[in-house]
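User: Could you check the structure of this?
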Amino acid sequence: MDRKNYAFDRFNFILLAVGVVIIIIGFLLMSGPGSTETAFNPDIFSVRRIKVAPVICFVGFVSIIYAIIHKPKDKEKA
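Assistant: Sure, the predicted structure tokens are below.
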């Protein structure tokens, strides 16, 4: 079979999927109950929501950028 020369290979798509999953985990860590007009919820300023979750999202975005920039190795079989 004649394989077409795609810009991404299997490794790139796996890295993209892992990056998306990491970002989803980060956004899930950021979610939670908020404050209302009548009650203040101090959990909106927790370390998990303010520091940990954005760092996890940033790592996910960096892994997606690496997956896009990573050049697949040429496998020329003549």
